[in-house]
Amino acid sequence: MTSMLMNSVRNCPVNSTWAVQFATRSLSTSSQMHATAKSKKTLAKPGVKNIVLVEGVRTPFLLSGTSYADLMPHDLARGALQGLLTKTGIPKDYVDYIVYGTVIQEVKTSNVAREAALGAGFSDKIPSHTVTQACISSNQAMTTGVGLIAAGQCDSVVAGGVEFMSDVPIRHSRKMRKTMLSLNKAKTLGQRLALIGSIRMAHLNPELPAVAEFSTAETMGHSADRLAAAFGVTRLEQDEFALRSHTLAKKAQDAGLLSDVISFKVPGKDIVSKDNGIRPSSMEQLSKLKAAFIKPHGTVTAANSSFLTDGASAVLIMSEEKALAMGFKPKAYLRDFVYVSQDPKDQLLLGPTYASPKALERSGLTMDDIDVFEFHEAFAGQIMANLKAMDSDWFAQTYMGRKSKVGAPPMEKFNLWGGSLSLGHPFGATGCRLVTTVAHRLQKEGGQYGLVAACAAGGLGHAMVIEAYPQ
């Protein structure tokens, strides 16, 4: 399949100067965006409950190993939940359910949703559970909440996600674990001494967690490099996109547009109030970095990849009826969504390509109807491979069973406040950031429809249509 992609998609009609136009156009048009009134049909459906996003917050997303380094995941999740309570003013016992997403679990707080909720002061009568679905874990947390409300089980749900890469669980080797468990069960001194004597130096080698596919043993960065090569995405294009992300994120941060970020007091340290991974550079500096995964000729580098990040997010989701009865002014409607999956070897990161047209079709929309696009930026190469796949009739016909392409998002509407490459990517928390950003951009830009899309490990993907709430 990879060779077919390389031969066929590379031959898709793509302007040879596309990369330069891509970066220049997106940077220039983003500064010229103005809020414009829209008058499109609503996606409300007869007999279907309207579900709204009331508010969304997140802790600052920080490079792992920085200010959050001595904390635990539930500390950040608790901070996000407390920030949501403060921002909304909702009484702590008015929430019906809490669900959180995470990927690399801390064994002491495996149900981090429950521990964070209790720590944040929510009533101990509120049920809570934790989900995991790789990089779309908080997407799953949100749609689980949507399902609970749609089914009439709940009126208000808090969903969120957290990831803490500063301290990940490192295990003993399996042989060492078996020996230690046997020692715990040994009844005599002789049995204990025999077990201790069986320990070899090799038993002491730790098992480190890796961002790699269990089914293929390939790291995600390696997959991104192969995907970029298959679609003919150049190193120049990737670096330009990374620079775009950081430049737009810095601009949004300086303009106060990242209003979902709440201040977080690190015990014994200063208050953290903004993301610290936003670092606009230059093409000259980016070009000096060496390949990070496929060496020496790969195109994926540390600069055009999302970085290891600590952070947490939380959103308040309610039925529209309940939200209005409590005096809230919702930000957006959460409309149709889909989850997809495909081959985790050659199509690991193509979730947006497969999910976007399905979500649009469920809503009766086309790409032209969408005013705001927010796609997860795992790697610049991954994003641009998706854009090329979405704009390819050949790919749609060959791999998706579609008559024609769905079309690529116009860059003047795409990730205008930065993305995961610059803001950071705490695996379990990114989905809530994407949805909240769409809601805020729709308000700011006067649009009506937004589309969130993301890829995830395992060949998974997600897309959701969001509709602005009438102002």
From TrEMBL:
Subcellular location: Endoplasmic reticulum; Mitochondrion inner membrane; Mitochondrion outer membrane
InterPro entries the record matches: Thiolase, Thiolase-like, Thiolase_acyl_enz_int_AS, Thiolase_AS, Thiolase_C, Thiolase_CS, Thiolase_N
Enzymatic reactions: hexanoyl-CoA + acetyl-CoA = 3-oxooctanoyl-CoA + CoA; tetradecanoyl-CoA + acetyl-CoA = 3-oxohexadecanoyl-CoA + CoA; dodecanoyl-CoA + acetyl-CoA = 3-oxotetradecanoyl-CoA + CoA; butanoyl-CoA + acetyl-CoA = 3-oxohexanoyl-CoA + CoA
GO BP, sorted A to Z: fatty acid beta-oxidation
Domain Thiolase C-terminal, chain residue ranges per copy: 329-467
Entry EC number(s): 2.3.1.155, 2.3.1.16
Example GO molecular function: acetyl-CoA C-myristoyltransferase activity
Pfam family, one: Thiolase_C
One GO CC term, this protein: mitochondrial inner membrane
Class of the enzyme per the UniProt entry, highest EC level: transferase
Spans through the membrane: none
Keywords: Acetylation, Acyltransferase, Endoplasmic reticulum, Fatty acid metabolism, Lipid metabolism, Membrane, Mitochondrion, Mitochondrion inner membrane, Mitochondrion outer membrane, Transferase, Transit peptide
Gene3D superfamilies to which the protein is assigned, alphabetical: 3.40.47.10
Pathway: Lipid metabolism; fatty acid beta-oxidation
Keyword Acetylation in annotation: yes
Thiolase N-terminal domain residues: 51-321
SUPFAM superfamilies per record: Thiolase-like (SSF53901)
Keyword Zinc: no
SUBUNIT field: Heterotetramer of 2 alpha/HADHA and 2 beta/HADHB subunits; forms the mitochondrial trifunctional enzyme. Also purified as higher order heterooligomers including a 4 alpha/HADHA and 4 beta/HADHB heterooligomer which physiological significance remains unclear. The mitochondrial trifunctional enzyme interacts with MTLN. Interacts with RSAD2/viperin.
Family label: Belongs to the thiolase-like superfamily. Thiolase family.
Protein name, UniProt field: Trifunctional enzyme subunit beta, mitochondrial
Record organism: Clupea harengus
